[in-house]
Automatic annotation (TrEMBL):
InterPro entries: EamA_dom, EmrE-like, WAT1-related. SUPFAM superfamilies: Multidrug resistance efflux transporter EmrE (SSF103481). It is found in: Membrane. The gene is LOC107015122. It comes from Solanum pennellii. Its main location: membrane. It holds the Pfam family EamA. Belongs to the drug/metabolite transporter (DMT) superfamily. Plant drug/metabolite exporter (P-DME) (TC 2.A.7.4) family. This is WAT1-related protein. Residues 357-370 have a biased composition (Polar residues). Residues 357-377 are annotated as: Disordered. The chain crosses the membrane at residues 7-28, 40-57, 69-90, 102-120, 132-151, 180-200, 212-233, 245-263, 275-294, 300-319. Keywords: Membrane, Transmembrane, Transmembrane helix. It is a multi-pass membrane protein. Residues 9-148, 183-318 form the EamA domain.
Length: 377
């Protein structure tokens, strides 16, 4: 019971950490920080914070690095951080934290869509589990389209109380730098690149059993890539200066929302499995919406609320189908193991009966086999 509660509390902390990243990133970008600059700083601080784990925890167990694995880590840096984070932060700048956290729930569905043609996942429409995964994916995508294309009326208005710093540094989160089509569209693309990263990262984990080392290398490569892209888009050094709130943002995003949450999520996956961890994704949506409403005075529109509910429902449907499929596979493996054990026991009993009933014939056969072996030698 104590371990169950520990895992639950840790996953709550992880979701709060992610929500904090979205809120503070939106705040500093509405205050004038460029999205490409934000994207460049994050992997730098992530590398600095996760490198000690790689050095001390995997120093003696780190396997040999090959060119193939290094190239796959490079692809992970492209899709998982460089492309993903640049598109993500531009999407966040043109939308709201609630929309960001809602579209994040598309990642399992996009991963499934990519994995089916590659043969990693089976569609299995003849089974209930396969149909549930398929329709869950369709519902998720439909919810994302509704959220992107339909705005609607205000369901929950602005709160009178809000963060004083947000009032002084940023404009209204509902109108400043917001594009209610471009923002969600870019966030959907960001979720797609993250799903591609998950597929490649799974291959890396299979071939290179040193997750902290591979993550450190990925973040290091992404740091170089994002800095090059950042300076091409934002060449002025004045744009790269960090005031106190910007410094807090980039350090928090790199150390807390990347390294720390990666470590905690990995521990929870080891204890309870990936499906259990995925079930907490909607909590990120609830916390982000609540914090954005309180601190940034975000309005909640009908399209956002309906789209978010549909996406979460589709995600849970997909996870339910995946759970049924996994349970079915486990039952099949257990039955196959049981049948093999019964067959082995039956063969052993038959052999013992033969040895008991025909000891003379068995001795003659053994002598014959020994004679043949000597002749061959």
């Amino acid at each position: 019971m104590g371990n169950e509660l520990m895992v639950f509390m840790i996953m709550m902390i992880v979701q709060v950490a992610y929500a904090g990243m979205v809120i503070i990133s939106k705040l500093v970008m509405d205050g004038g920080m460029n999205a490409f600059v934000q994207s460049a700083y994050r992997p730098i601080f992530a590398t600095i914070s996760i490198a000690p784990f790689a050095f001390f925890l995997e120093r003696k167990t780190r396997p040999k690095m090959t060119r193939s694995i290094l190239f796959q880590i490079f692809l992970c840096s492209i899709f998982g951080i460089t492309a993903n984070q640049n598109i993500y932060f531009i999407g966040l700048k043109n939308s709201t934290p609630t929309i960001v956290s809602a579209i994040d729930n598309l990642i399992p569905a996009f991963t499934f869509i990519i994995a089916v043609p590659l043969g990693i996942e089976k569609l299995g429409l003849r089974s209930i589990a396969g149909q549930t995964k398929f329709w869950g994916t369709i519902i998720c995508v439909g919810g994302a389209m509704l959220l992107s294309l339909y705005h609607g009326k205000v369901v929950i208005g602005q709160l009178g109380f809000h963060w004083k710093y947000a009032e002084n540094t940023s404009k209204d989160v509902n109108s400043a730098n917001s594009n209610f089509f471009l923002g969600p569209f870019l966030l959907i693309v960001s979720s797609l690149t993250y799903a591609i990263w998950l597929i490649i990262q799974a291959r890396v984990n299979e071939k290179y059993a040193a997750p902290y080392t591979s993550t450190t290398l990925m973040c290091l490569m992404a740091s170089v890539e994002c800095v090059i892209i950042g300076f091409c888009v934002v060449p002025k050094l004045s744009e790269w200066k960090l005031n106190p709130i910007r410094a807090v943002s980039v350090v928090y995003n790199g150390a807390m929302a990347t390294s720390f949450t990666y470590y905690l999520s990995s521990w929870c996956i080891e204890k309870k499995g990936p499906l259990y961890v995925s079930m907490f994704n909607p909590l990120f949506l609830v916390i982000s919406a609540f914090l954005s409403w309180i601190l940034l005075r975000e309005k909640l529109y009908l399209g956002v609320v309906l789209g978010s509910i549909i996406i979460v429902a589709g995600m849970y449907g997909f996870l339910w189908g995946k759970k049924m499929e996994t349970s079915s596979e486990d039952i099949d493996v257990l039955e196959l193991t049981k049948e093999k054990k019964q067959l082995s026991t039956k063969l052993q009993v038959d052999l013992e009966l033969q040895l008991t009933q025909n000891p003379k014939d068995n001795n003659n056969n053994n002598i014959k086999q020994i004679t043949e072996s000597k002749t061959e030698l």
